[in-house]
Design a protein that fits this description.
The structure is a single chain. With 125 residues, the chain is of the alpha/beta class. The protein has 2 domains: 49 residues, Signal recognition particle alu RNA binding heterodimer, srp9/1 (2-Layer Sandwich); 64 residues, 2,3-Dihydroxybiphenyl 1,2-Dioxygenase, domain 1 (Roll). It is 17% helix and 34% strand. A 4-stranded mixed sheet has the order 1-4-3-2, covered by helices on one side. The protein has a 4-stranded mixed sheet with strand order 5-8-7-6. A hairpin with a 6-residue loop joins strand 6 and strand 7. The radius of gyration is 15 Å and the shape is globular. The protein starts with 8 loop residues before the first strand and ends with a strand.
Length: 125
């Protein structure tokens, strides 16, 4: 029924201007205005994600975006220098180091939050 329908992913933020400034200026992502209260984050591979402002927004409890990078550690260092704070986890299933990087089982990955509190990652690979 929907095999020929194009689709896209999206997520909500509580303050579009603040969120788009973060994605554009801090992370260096291409941002396109696509209408009132709507924007698209555009990746270099042609993929886009719709971002919309939502009253009463509550941050997602899961990772909404993953940015594959060649070197998580150097990316974390650069983002920290730009003011990004990384999440720290220390439980049985997930442990991060002092920089917020999980290594070992699974991919090398680090998580941070956007200004709306949504979880974003940089992942090696």
């Amino acid at each position: 029924m929907l095999k020929n329908a194009p689709f896209y992913a999206g997520f909500a933020v509580d303050d579009m201007e603040r969120a788009m400034a973060f994605y554009r200026e801090t992370l260096g992502v291409e941002v396109a205005d696509v209408g009132p209260g709507l924007a698209a984050l555009r990746a270099t591979n042609g993929y886009s994600v719709l971002v919309y402002e939502k009253a009463g927004h509550e941050p997602a409890a899961h990772t909404i975006l993953n940015f594959p990078v060649d070197d998580v550690e150097s990316t974390v260092d650069a983002l920290r220098a730009a003011g990004v704070e990384f999440e720290r986890y220390d439980d049985e299933q997930l442990k991060t180091d002092e920089k917020g990087i999980a290594r070992g089982e699974g991919p090398t990955i680090a998580w941070f939050r956007d200004p709306a509190g949504n979880i974003v990652s940089v992942i090696e690979g």
